[in-house]
Design brief:
single chain, alpha/beta, Arc Repressor Mutant, subunit A, 2 domains, two-stranded antiparallel ribbon, 11 strands, INH-QAR, transcription
C-alpha cells in the first residue's frame, strides 16, 4: 500500500489535484491494495480552488500519514504561499519516497529548497520565473515532465495525468497503467520528453494568409524542399522579403521553424513507428542519417538510435 498525499491550499488548480488523484484512485480500483490517496491542508479546512470549486481535505498536514508519494499541485496559490506551507514542505518533503509536483507546484518545491541541484520543469509560462528566482534549479522548459531521481516535476495541468500514469506503470506495470488510461480515455502515455508546445504552437501564427499557408505547408510536408527560396515562391514574395516578414510575424526565422518541425516529426516517428533511421531521415527532410544525427545531437544531446532506446515504449505481449 503506497500512500499518496496531495497537498491542498487556497487557489489551487483543481485539475492539478483531480487529474493525478483519479489516476491513483483508478489504479487502486483495478488492483486493490496498491494506493491510498489522502488530501490535507494546513489547518484541515476546506480550500477554494482557482476555478471556484471547494475541496474538503481528509485532515491537516500535521496529522497526515507519512506518504510514499507527496504530490504538490499548482495554481494561483503558489504565487504568494503561506510560509507555513513552505516550511512544512521543507521539513517533510525529504522524508517522502517520491516527491511530485504538477504545474506551478514546482515553485513551492523550489521555495522549500527541494529542487536545488536538480533538473525540473513547470508550466511554460513560469519556467523563466523558476529559473530566475531559483538559479540552483536546472530548469528545462521543453518537456511535459521531468524525472530526476526521487523528484518528478510536470508542466501544465494535463501533464500531471501523464506523469501519474508513468508512476503507476513503474509501480504496477504497463497493463495496470493502460487499464487506468482506458478508463480515463487518455493516451498511455505521452513520453515525458514530449514538448509542451508543438512547433506550431511554440511560434506565433502569422497574420498574413500567405505566410500562414506556408507555415501549414511546412508542417504537413517536412520532407519537401523547404529552403527559403522555395517557401518564398509559395508565398509569392522575394526571398529577402519573405524571410524578414516570416520572422517578424512568427518570432522565428524560416530556417529555425523548419528545424523545429522536422525535429518534432522525426521524434514522433522514432517513438511511434518501427521505421529505420535512414527512412525517417528522408521522410523528415534531413536527406541522410548523418544530417539527422547532427540535428538530434545539437538539439537533444542524443543520437536518433539512442533517443529511440530511451523514449519509445517497450512493446507489450
Amino acid at each position: 500500500m503506497r500512500t499518496v498525499l496531495v497537498v491542498l491550499f487556497d487557489a489551487v488548480q483543481s485539475l492539478d489535484v483531480t487529474g493525478p488523484t483519479e489516476v491513483f484512485a483508478g489504479a487502486e480500483t483495478c488492483r486493490a491494495g496498491s494506493y491510498r490517496v489522502r488530501t490535507a491542508s494546513l489547518d484541515g479546512a476546506p480550500v477554494r480552488t482557482s476555478s471556484g470549486l471547494t475541496l474538503v481535505p481528509d485532515g491537516t498536514l500535521a496529522e497526515a500519514p507519512a506518504p510514499h508519494t507527496l504530490l504538490v499541485p499548482g495554481g494561483r496559490g503558489t504565487r504568494r504561499p503561506d510560509p507555513r506551507l513552505t516550511g512544512w514542505l521543507r521539513e517533510h518533503g525529504p522524508r517522502a519516497d517520491r516527491l511530485v509536483s504538477v504545474c506551478t507546484g514546482a515553485l513551492l518545491l523550489a521555495r522549500a529548497g527541494l529542487l536545488d541541484g536538480r533538473r525540473a520543469t513547470t508550466h511554460w509560462a513560469y519556467c523563466d520565473r523558476l529559473a530566475r528566482d531559483h538559479p540552483a534549479v536546472r530548469v528545462d522548459p521543453d518537456p511535459i515532465y521531468v524525472r530526476d531521481g526521487r523528484v518528478s516535476t510536470s508542466a501544465g495541468v494535463t501533464s500531471g495525468i501523464d506523469l501519474s500514469l508513468a508512476l503507476v506503470e513503474d509501480d504496477l506495470g504497463r497493463e495496470a497503467a493502460l487499464t487506468v488510461a482506458r478508463h480515463l480515455v487518455v493516451f498511455l502515455r505521452r513520453p515525458g520528453n514530449q514538448a509542451q508546445f508543438s512547433a506550431q504552437l511554440a511560434a506565433q501564427t502569422a497574420r498574413r494568409e500567405p505566410l500562414r499557408e506556408v507555415q501549414q505547408w511546412i508542417t504537413e510536408r517536412p520532407g519537401e524542399d523547404l529552403r527559403v527560396e522555395a517557401l518564398a515562391a509559395r508565398a509569392r514574395l522575394s526571398p529577402r522579403h519573405f524571410a524578414r516578414a516570416f520572422q517578424s510575424e512568427t518570432g522565428v526565422t524560416p530556417g529555425r521553424y523548419v528545424d523545429r518541425v522536422r525535429l518534432e516529426h522525426a521524434r514522433r516517428l522514432l517513438e511511434d513507428t518501427p521505421d529505420g533511421v535512414a527512412e525517417i531521415s528522408r521522410a523528415c527532410g534531413y536527406g541522410t542519417p548523418e544530417a539527422m544525427r547532427r540535428a538530434f545531437l545539437r538539439a537533444l544531446g542524443a543520437a536518433p538510435a539512442e533517443y529511440r532506446r530511451r523514449f519509445r515504449p517497450a512493446p507489450t505481449h
